[in-house]
Known about the structure:
Elements: H1 4-15, H2 26-40, H3 47-56, H4 63-66, H5 74-88, H6 93-112, H7 118-128, H8 136-152, E1 167-178, E2 181-184, E3 194-197, H9 200-203, E4 211-219, E5 222-232
Helix pairs in contact: 1-2, 2-5, 2-6, 5-7
Amino acid sequence: MTTIREALSQFLAETGEGNRRSMSSPFMVIDLFSKCIDEYGHEDLNEFEQQRFDKEWSDDNRFCDIFSSDHIQPYHINHFLSTFVIRKVMGTKGFRKACGPVMKKLTTWLLEKKHWDADAMRYYRELVGDNAGSDLVGCDEFTSALHDYVEAHPVDDEADDVDDDDYFNDELTIKSVERGKLVFDGFLDGEEDIVISLPKSVTSKAKAGWSVTMEIARIKGKWGILGIGNVYP
């Protein structure tokens, strides 16, 4: 049996690991990907696999050491690119640009080496698409621009005096990017869209379909942003 960790090491040995000290190297991307699987891979195990994981896991024997390479799942890569890199990694712009191409090369290698079959590759393409990780840098740039704007233009609110229907602290999805504003989907089906006015310097960096964690309040009939969290592609 080839374990996940062994397969990832073989991938780097055959395709090149780059400068290990560089955040944008394939070595660094794969190292963090393995940490992602070690931390979250157990969440989708069946009952038998979970029993094995619970029995064999230790600080020196983690998910990537216990399970075979066919346990590298397309949704692991999707989680890495869409959530883990954003929440867990304080990486450079070069690192975020490298993530997608390295993951794409990894999936091709997994198929060529028969760690994946055609169904796994098909699922990966349906789940992640052909431009995996391409929005990571853009999300960072939009987050920075939005954060700077919110810091420079604080909303004059008294949160305790705002009705519950006029205050949210949640993740919103950008429905459309329009001139001078972003339109977000309502929280429930049938609810009206949430429209937030913003300058072009901010909206030009946004993209429909991205999700934004925000604290917002409706003051005098207009939605304003009180705080910003992460932006997800």
